């Protein structure tokens, strides 16, 4: 049992006070990354050293061959139950409560796990889309992931979903080639194509421009940016930090390890996010 203290151990008092004052004043926009969901059991890409631990499949690779699609869908079919079973952690919950109190504004998230919404956040912009939808790259039809999941189960009635090891950041699980080669992919009910893709911005793809502009607007109208759990190595998130900094707005980064945004960061705290955000909520005036 930990006692409720005013700040996490290892954070110096002046840095902490600066953060509390900034959040208490209200008006911050929020940018979140994979580090906010690690405490829900979904691994991040980079970790504290900023090095990428896995090489994700690109959209070009996925569309290039039926074998790539078979591999993608077999691995993510097994991963989906585990990914979907992840629940919001205390960090997501604090963000939702501070939003409800009017202290935090729009949440721009790089995550594709839907955990902010599950925790009760309403104003969420998903920069990289969500794994809860699937899109046909041939005709554009969009499906609920559950629908595709059921179709995959029908097509693979004897496939063992409990195989494989740990879930990886993209929601998949590494499987042996012999198993992958037995997997039958689903097809689009509208056009019959097997070119189904998760409705996320895959590695190497760009975030839709109107969404980027909307997020720039959010940052420009805010009084500062609170970054939670992002290495900022991906430009799609880092550009909002740059914009905030160029406007002279404070940028508070709560993330373990080095980020690409050190030069733009005005407050940096590296303690685990669940703990940090719990203390932050307690430290704010009621
Ligand atoms: N949950 C998800 O939806 C998910 C998971 C993995 C990757 N992705 C995708 O991968 C890309 C990765 O970029 P990114 O910047 O979001 O993540 P990242 O993996 O590059 O960086 C995560 C950062 O969070 C830190 N971190 C991890 N756990 C933490 C904790 N408990 N407390 C404090 N800090 C912690 C790490 O040290 C790291 O610096 C994104 O584009 C995203 O779409 C999404
Ligand atoms: Zn189609």
From TrEMBL:
Q: Which SUPFAM superfamilies match?
A: DHS-like NAD/FAD-binding domain
Molecular function terms, GO-annotated: histone deacetylase activity, NAD-dependent; metal ion binding; NAD+ binding
Swiss-Prot/TrEMBL keywords? Metal-binding, NAD, Transferase, Zinc
PROSITE patterns recorded: SIRTUIN (PS50305)
Q: Which residues form the Deacetylase sirtuin-type domain?
A: 9-286
What positions does the entry give for Zn(2+) binding? 136, 139, 188, 191
Membrane-crossing segments per the record: none
Active site, renumbered = 128
InterPro entries assigned to the protein according to its UniProt record, in alphabetical order = DHS-like_NAD/FAD-binding_dom (IPR029035), NAD-dep_sirtuin_deacylases (IPR050134), Sirtuin (IPR003000), Sirtuin_cat_small_dom_sf (IPR026591), Ssirtuin_cat_dom (IPR026590)
Q: Return the EC number.
A: 2.3.1.286
The UniProt entry, under PANTHER family, shows:
NAD-DEPENDENT PROTEIN DEACYLASE SIRTUIN-5, MITOCHONDRIAL-RELATED (PTHR11085:SF10)
Q: What is this protein called?
A: protein acetyllysine N-acetyltransferase
* Record organism: Luteipulveratus mongoliensis
């Amino acid at each position: 049992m930990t006692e409720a203290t005013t700040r996490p151990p290892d954070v110096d008092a002046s840095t902490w006070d600066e953060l509390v004052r900034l959040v208490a004043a209200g008006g911050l926009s929020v940018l979140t990354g994979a580090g906010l969901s690690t405490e829900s059991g979904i691994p991040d890409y980079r970790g504290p050293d900023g090095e990428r631990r896995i090489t994700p499949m690109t959209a070009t690779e996925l569309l290039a061959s039926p074998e790539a699609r078979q591999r993608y869908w077999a691995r993510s079919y097994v991963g989906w139950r585990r990914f979907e079973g992840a629940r919001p952690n205390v960090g997501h919950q604090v963000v939702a409560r501070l939003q409800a109190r009017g202290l935090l504004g729009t949440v721009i998230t790089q995550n594709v796990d839907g955990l902010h919404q599950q925790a009760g956040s309403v104003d969420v912009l998903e920069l990289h889309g969500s794994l809860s939808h699937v899109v046909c790259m041939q005709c554009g039809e969009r499906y609920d992931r559950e629908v595709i999941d059921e179709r995959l189960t029908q097509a693979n009635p004897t496939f063992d979903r409990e195989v494989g090891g740990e879930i990886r950041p993209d929601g998949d699980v590494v499987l042996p080639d012999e198993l992958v080669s037995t997997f039958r992919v689903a097809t689009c009910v509208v056009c019959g194509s097997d070119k189904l893709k998760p409705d996320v911005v895959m590695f190497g793809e760009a975030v839709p421009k109107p969404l980027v502009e909307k997020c720039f607007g959010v940052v420009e109208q805010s009084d500062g940016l609170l970054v939670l759990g992002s290495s900022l190595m991906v430009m799609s998130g880092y550009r909002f930090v740059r914009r905030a900094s160029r406007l002279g707005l404070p940028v508070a980064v709560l993330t373990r390890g080095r980020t690409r945004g050190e030069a733009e960061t005005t407050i940096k705290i590296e303690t685990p996010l669940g703990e940090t955000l719990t203390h932050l909520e307690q430290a704010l005036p009621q």
